[in-house]
Design brief:
Elements lengths: L1 E4 L4 H12 L4 E5 L11 E3 L5 H9 L7 E4 L10 H19 L8 E5 L11 H8 L4 H10 L7 H16 L9 E7 L5 H9 L6 H6 L5 H12 L10 E4 L3 H8 L7
Parallel strand pairs: 1-2, 1-4, 2-3, 4-5, 5-6, 6-7
C-alpha cells in the first residue's frame, strides 16, 4: 500500500500511475477531488491545515508500505511563509502522523528540488526550524523569521532536504527509511505554464542540460526509491536533473531556479 500526495497532477500523478501499473495499491491524496481517471482510493487533504492532515491520515489504511510526499506549492504561488508552511511543515506533520502505520521495511520519499541545492549553506537556520516540533511552533518561528516570497520555494525545499538528512538516522530503529529526490526542470503542467508566461524567453537551467525532464523519468526513480531494491538507501538526497547540479559546479553558474 503506497500513499502519494499531490496525486492529482504532475509528478504525483505520474508516480501514482506507474505504481498502480506495477501492481501496487495506491491511495492518492490531494486538496482537489479525484480526477476522472483515478483508479484507486482517494483522500482530500489540505497541507496548510493540521486538522485536515490528521483527518486524512485517520482514513488511511492501517498499513502503509511507502509514502511519497509530492504535494506542494510552486514558486511565486503565495508568500514565502505560506509556501514553507505547506511544503515543509505540512509535509512533515503528515509524515509523522503516518509513521505509526509503517512497518519495518517501509519507505518515505520526499520530493524536494534542485532549488534546494544550497541547503547546507543555511543548515543552522534550518536546524532552528526543525527544532520547532509542531506545526504551530513552526508557524510561530516563521512569523519571527519571515521568508521572502522570492525565496519561499527554495527555502522550503532546503528545509525538506535538511529534515530528511537529519531525521533519517533517528528512524533507523523503526526500520523505516527516508530519502529525498531532487528533480530539475520537469515538464509538469506548472512548469509548462511558467514557461508560457516567459513569452519565449530561454530557461537557463534547461539550456544547461539541453531539455527539461519528463514526468515518467522522475516517476521511475521514485518507484525505485520506494521499493525493496533501494533497501540500503537512507538519508540520501538524489538529484534527477539531467546533470544540472553537475553543470552548476562545472560552469560556476548559480542555479537559475533560486
Amino acid at each position: 500500500m503506497v500513499a502519494v500526495t499531490g496525486a492529482a497532477s504532475g509528478i504525483g500523478a505520474g508516480i501514482a500511475a506507474l505504481l498502480t501499473a506495477r501492481g501496487a495499491t495506491v491511495v492518492g491524496l490531494d486538496r482537489v477531488p479525484a480526477p476522472a481517471a483515478t483508479r484507486g482510493p482517494w483522500l482530500t487533504v489540505d497541507l496548510s491545515s493540521p486538522p485536515s492532515i490528521r483527518a486524512a491520515v485517520k482514513r488511511l489504511p492501517d498499513r502503509i508500505d511507502a509514502l511519497c510526499n509530492v504535494a506542494g506549492m510552486h514558486p511565486r504561488s503565495a508568500d514565502g511563509n505560506e509556501i514553507v508552511a505547506v511544503n515543509y511543515l505540512g509535509t512533515r506533520l503528515l509524515t509523522e502522523c503516518v509513521l505509526d502505520r509503517m512497518q519495518p521495511g517501509a519507505a518515505v520519499l520526499n520530493m524536494a528540488s534542485v532549488a534546494g541545492a544550497r541547503w547546507q549553506a543555511r543548515l543552522g537556520v534550518h536546524r532552528e526550524l526543525i527544532a520547532c516540533e509542531t506545526f504551530e511552533t513552526g508557524l510561530a518561528w516563521l512569523r519571527s523569521h519571515p521568508v521572502a516570497r522570492s525565496e519561499g520555494y527554495s527555502f522550503s525545499k532546503e528545509a525538506l532536504i535538511a529534515w530528511t538528512v537529519l531525521t533519517a538516522p533517528a528512524w533507523l530503529p523503526r526500520g523505516v527509511r527516508m530519502n529525498a529526490l531532487c528533480p530539475g526542470p520537469v515538464e509538469t503542467p506548472a512548469f509548462l505554464a511558467f514557461q508560457a508566461a516567459r513569452s519565449g524567453a530561454a530557461n537557463p537551467d534547461v539550456e544547461l542540460v539541453g531539455r527539461a525532464g519528463r514526468i515518467d523519468e522522475v516517476a521511475r526513480v521514485a518507484a525505485f526509491m520506494c521499493g525493496e531494491e533501494s533497501g540500503w538507501l537512507n538519508g540520501a538526497v538524489l538529484p534527477v536533473d539531467g546533470g544540472l547540479q553537475a553543470a552548476y559546479v562545472a560552469t560556476g553558474q548559480e542555479p537559475a531556479q533560486l
